């Protein structure tokens, strides 16, 4: 008859309901070795997790660096385009001003003829020539072409071309105007041809 106190699994290791410690004891593994094995597994897992986190950080750093480079490239291209657009606008404006000045310059000979006709009294009476002169001068005003150079004005060598100097002192004024000067806006398109004299 079997003794109920006898362990039927004494010769076969731990029973089916044994825990990890009992299983480890049954297989001849002591608790310290088992704990070391668990700690080693945990350390290996932590190292693997750390390596993975480091790889993620490295990738994030690389992507951030590439983003910074692309941002700098975009800012540089945007600045270059803005400068290019300003140059194009400036060149277009200059071309328009030069074309306008060229056209106005061609009209100045006609303005001189009208001035001479006025000096001879040909524009005093109402007639076709007077009507034409008025329309022509209105056109110059519309183009912002203005005349300068009148007797008594202070002589300015930057805008007055002196063909004769009859002055004796240091102060010089325009004694007579041989040909008017003209400006287009603020740009001088023709200097005035004058005779210098002393102030009256």
Automatic annotation (TrEMBL):
Query: What does the UniProt function comment say about this protein?
Result: Participates actively in the response to hyperosmotic and heat shock by preventing the aggregation of stress-denatured proteins, in association with DnaK and GrpE. It is the nucleotide exchange factor for DnaK and may function as a thermosensor. Unfolded proteins bind initially to DnaJ; upon interaction with the DnaJ-bound protein, DnaK hydrolyzes its bound ATP, resulting in the formation of a stable complex. GrpE releases ADP from DnaK; ATP binding to DnaK triggers the release of the substrate protein, thus completing the reaction cycle.
Its protein name is: Protein GrpE
At the highest ranks, the source species' classification is: Bacteria, Bacillati, Actinomycetota, Actinomycetes, Mycobacteriales
Q: Spell out the Low complexity composition-biased ranges.
A: 15-27, 40-54
Classify the source by domain of life: Bacteria
- Where are the bilayer-spanning segments? none
Organism the protein comes from: Corynebacterium hansenii
The UniProt family comment states:
Belongs to the GrpE family.
- Which UniProt keywords are listed? Chaperone, Cytoplasm, Stress response
The reply to whether Cytoplasm figures as a keyword in the UniProt entry is yes
PANTHER family documented for this protein: GRPE PROTEIN (PTHR21237), GRPE PROTEIN HOMOLOG, MITOCHONDRIAL (PTHR21237:SF23)
Where are the annotated segments for Disordered? Answer: 1-67
Where, per UniProt, does this protein localize?
Answer: Cytoplasm
Q: Which PROSITE patterns does this entry report, sorted A to Z?
A: GRPE
């Amino acid at each position: 008859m079997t003794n109920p106190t006898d362990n039927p699994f004494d010769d076969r290791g731990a029973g089916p309901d044994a825990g990890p410690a009992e299983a480890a004891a049954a297989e001849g593994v002591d608790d310290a070795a088992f704990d070391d094995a668990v700690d080693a597994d945990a350390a290996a897992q932590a190292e693997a997790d750390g390596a993975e986190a480091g790889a993620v950080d490295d990738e994030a750093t690389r992507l951030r660096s590439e983003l910074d480079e692309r941002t700098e490239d975009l800012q540089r291209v945007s600045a270059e385009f803005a400068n290019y657009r300003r140059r194009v606008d400036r060149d277009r404006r200059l071309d328009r001003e030069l074309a306008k000045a060229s056209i106005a310059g061609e009209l100045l000979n006609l303005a001189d003829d009208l001035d001479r006709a006025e000096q001879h009294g040909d524009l005093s009476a109402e007639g076709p020539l007077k009507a034409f002169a008025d329309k022509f001068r209105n056109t110059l005003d519309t183009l912002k072409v203005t005349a300068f150079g009148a007797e008594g004005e202070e002589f300015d060598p930057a805008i007055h071309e002196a063909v004769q100097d009859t002055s004796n002192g240091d102060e010089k004024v325009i004694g007579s105007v041989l040909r008017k000067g003209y400006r287009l806006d603020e740009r001088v398109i023709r200097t005035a041809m004058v005779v210098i004299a002393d102030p009256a």
